[in-house]
Design brief:
Protein name: Flagellar biosynthetic protein FliO
Keywords: Cell membrane, Cell projection, Cilium, Flagellum, Membrane, Transmembrane, Transmembrane helix
Strand order of the largest sheet: 1-2-3-4
Subcellular location: Cell membrane
Shape: flat
Number of strands: 4
Organism: Curtobacterium citreum
Length: 174
C-alpha cells in the first residue's frame, strides 16, 4: 500500500512539473513573458555604428535607432545615455558601371575608326592617365643563404642531423 502511494505522488509531481514547463514554453514562444514581441507595427531598427573600449569593462557605443543617433556609456553597472541627436543622412552610394555601359562606350568608339581600342582599354587608359607612374619593385630582391659556419649547431644544419643519427645508431648497437 505504501509503495502505491509513493508511485502516485511521484507521477503526480512529474505531471505538475511537465505541465508547468509546457505553460512556460507557450508563454515564452508567444512573447508574453519578459519583453513583448512587436505586434502590428514594425520593430525598431537598431544599428551599432561604433564601439570603443575606455576601460576594463566600460565602453562608449554609438547607436542609430529610427533616425536618432544615441551615444551610450556602457559599464558593468548599466547603460547611461551620454548624448543624443539626429542621425546623419546616409551617404549616396557610388555609381557602378555596368557591362551595358561599357558595351555602349565601345560601340561609340567603333563609330570612329581612328579610336578603335582593345576591349576595356578605354577604362584602363582613363585610369592610368590619372595615376602617377611608380616602379613596382623599388627594392631589389635580396636572397640570404646562410653558410655552413653560420648554421653550425642549429637544427637547420645537415651536420647536426648526421650527429643525431650517429648517436641513435650507437645507442642501438651498444
Amino acid at each position: 500500500m505504501d509503495t502505491l502511494v509513493i508511485v502516485l505522488r511521484v507521477a503526480l509531481s512529474l505531471g505538475v512539473v511537465l505541465a508547468l514547463m509546457w505553460v512556460l514554453h507557450r508563454r515564452v514562444s508567444k512573447g508574453q513573458l519578459g519583453r513583448p514581441k512587436a505586434r502590428g507595427r514594425r520593430a525598431a531598427s537598431v544599428e551599432v555604428v561604433g564601439r570603443t573600449g575606455i576601460g576594463g569593462k566600460a565602453s562608449v557605443v554609438v547607436v542609430d535607432v529610427e533616425g536618432e543617433r544615441l551615444v551610450l556609456g556602457v559599464s558593468e553597472h548599466g547603460v547611461a545615455l551620454l548624448t543624443s541627436g539626429q542621425a546623419p543622412a546616409p551617404e549616396p552610394e557610388l555609381a557602378i558601371v555596368t557591362s551595358a555601359d561599357r558595351f555602349r562606350a565601345e560601340l561609340e568608339q567603333q563609330d570612329d575608326p581612328a579610336t578603335i581600342l582593345p576591349v576595356g582599354a578605354a577604362e584602363t587608359a582613363e585610369v592610368t592617365a590619372s595615376l602617377p607612374m611608380r616602379p613596382r619593385n623599388r627594392r631589389p630582391q635580396r636572397t640570404f643563404v646562410p653558410t655552413n659556419r653560420q648554421l653550425h649547431g642549429s637544427i637547420l644544419s645537415a651536420d647536426t642531423w648526421r650527429q643525431a643519427a650517429a648517436a641513435l645508431r650507437d645507442r642501438r648497437a651498444g
